[in-house]
Every structure is written in C-alpha cells, then in structure tokens.
Amino acid sequence: MQEIRDAILAGQFDAVGGLPVPDHYRGVTVHADEAEMFAGIPSRDKDPRKSLHVDDVPTPELGPGEAIVAVMASAINYNTVWTSIFEPVSTFGFLKRYGRVSELTKRHDLPYHVVGSDLAGVVLRTGPGVNRWKPGDRVVAHCLSVELEAPDGHNDTMMDPEQRIWGFETNFGGLAELALVKANQLMPKPAHLSWEEAASPGLVNSTAYRQLVSGNGAGMKQGDTVLIWGASGGLGSYATQFALNGGATPVCVVSSPAKAEICRKMGAELIIDRSAEGYRFWKDEHTQDPKEWKRFGARIRELTGGDDPDIVFEHPGRETFGASVYVARKGGTIVTCASTSGYEHSYDNRYLWMNLKRIIGSHFANYRESWEANRLIAKGQIHPTVSKVYPLEETGQAALDVHTNSHQGKVGVLALAPEEGLGVTDPEFRARHIDAINRFRGV
After folding, report:
1. Is 90 exceeded by the pLDDT of residue 143?
2. What is the pTM of this model?
C-alpha cells in the first residue's frame, strides 16, 4: 500500500498499474455481531464512535465490469450515520439480500461491512469488459450500483429493481484505503480540487441535482422560487448553489446566524433563521400546529414580495413536511428524500389536493445525472462544501459530527492522502475559484 501511495503522491500515475494490489487493506467497518449494541437507546444518544472500527480486511475479488480504486479521500453522508447506529435497520440485511443475487455478489455478504459512499482516488485495476477506464486514471465515484439485467432500468437506471447505494447497501465502500466499484460509477476527478474536496460532493451533489434540477425531480426552471430546508447543510448547500446557478431564487431555511452567513456567502439573499424566529410546527409529539405553517408561509411571502415557493426542497421529513405541503404555491412541487427527522410524514391533504400540488419522491441519481452534476463541479459553476476533514482513524468522530448536526456542508475523511490540499493538477483554474472552494472551511 505504501508503494501505491508513494507513486500517487509523486504523480507517477502511469506506474500505478504495474504495482501489485495488496491482499488486504484498512477500511472503516461495522460488525454484524454488534448490530444490537444500541438496543433501547434513543437515536440521538447512539454514538458512531463505538460502532465504527478501522479494520484490516481482505481485498475483494475483482469481477467483470468492476474496478479497484486506491482511495485518497472520502466523506461522511447521512447513510453512514444510519449504518453506524443500525437505523432504521441493520445494513447486514442489505448485504445478505445482495449476496443472493449471484455467485459474484456473494462476496458482499460478510460479517463486517466496509462503509462509505464517496471517494476520490486512482484506478488500480479494472475487470474484464472495462474499456473506458484504465489504471492510473484519477477519478471520483458516484454511489449508484445497478445490475441492469431487467428492462426497468434502461430508461432511468434508478428504476433498476437491483438498484443499490454503494457502501450502504453493498460492501467495500469508500471509507477505506481501497474500494470496489462498478466501472459505471466512475467519473473524472475535477483537476482543480484536492482529493478531499473532490471526494465530498459525490452523493449529495448528485442527489440535489436529480431532486431539484432533473426532469426526474422538480425540473427547476429560471425564475422559480425554491424553499430549501437546511440550506447550509450537506444537501441544502448544493441545492442553494443549483438554484442560484440556474436562475432561480432560493429561500434558505437555516437554524443559526452562522449558517445564515454561509448562505449569504453563497449568494443567497432570502434567509429564514427558524431558531431565531421560533417556529414550532408541532404542538406535541402527535399534533401539528397549522398556525405555525401560516406564520411561516407569511414570512416567505414577506421575503419574496408575495410569492409562494414553486418548489420545496424537502429532506428533514417528519418535522417539516406538513409545513412544506402548506407553503408550496398552487400547482407547486414538494420534492422529498432522506427524512432525517423521521420517515412518517403527516400533512393536511386539503392543501395538496385542492391546490393541485405534487409530491415527488427522489432518491440519489442515475449515471447521466451524476455525470452532469460532477461536470458542473469541474467547470467551477458548483463548488465543494468541505468544512472539516478527519483522518481515517477518526471516522467515528466525523460521523458523530453529522449525527449531531454540529457540522456545516460536508465532513471529509482522508484515506491514503497523508494531509489536506494534495491532488490539485490545475492550480491556475483553482486560483480563480479559491474563495468559493474555501467558503465552508473552518465554519
């Protein structure tokens, strides 16, 4: 592994393919025999530092259409938090089901799960049938894993019945020194970004692109008013950028003055600090408060000059969904994923049906959408939102930051990269965008 690291750090990418692939590597894992370790503990008190381990694990067999990538950096997503606290279910059920698909997928059904759904790194080996990519290529990976043997996925690969999220519903994820991916997960690494910056957009950038921009999601157009919950967070920070880049007007909902300032730095002007303004959408655990929906809607109209949101970018879920349905304009769209505050959504259907609103479920993105989202990163039109970076050994703390929402933007993790700031091959282009690249740093 040290030879591979040294070659990459020296820029000797052509030599990487001639180096042996180690038969083991370090990866961040959860263990099947610990799946009940948090039983009876409230979700907020479950500590990823106790369940995430850095283990030495065997390198998986390389199959057709696959690649092994030397991972220089990765990042934390909410699915890693879910995996680490074994909610809503243990991911070992996903691995068992995947293991039943074929002889090759049996590799994934193990008593440990190497997690992580982002990476930036260098291709080490490709399997039979891979022609586009070769050893030495600098890449990032999106997290859509599909088999594409059924017809359902050939219009939109997210509809493949064997669609999975790599590193969450499959094994051998990106929080590791090596990762196993399908070749159709790979995309070119943006040359002006460091390894940790390039790794961080993958899942959330692609998810926000499909949810907000793509015709498979809300199909945002110029002039739309877009309400964005958690506008400085992992998903919301990209939705805010897409809205601004696409000629829409974001209304950014945040929970602190510091988060409001981040949105202003991105270029947003209409901001609601929900904590400062004291919105309480639930009277108690079972009863929502429509008066608070109306107060919230009035505040939006005050900011926009009377406009209701054409699109509501929803991901908190249970806590905010009733308000989201209420405030969307007549004929508007509520597009939803994630449900980080709870999966059981309640809303008053009168405001949906009588006002011809639509609810659209959105989940990650297909290869084309991911490619387009990554292309916007490479063109400097959308920027990474890394705020803090941890070494691989401290992945548990990185996941805890996300679990407790004590982070901004994305939290990165260094794998083979020994320090931050490495991997930039277009410093001139980087210099033109350096302020935007560093917007979230240290916040």
Report:
1. yes
2. 0.95
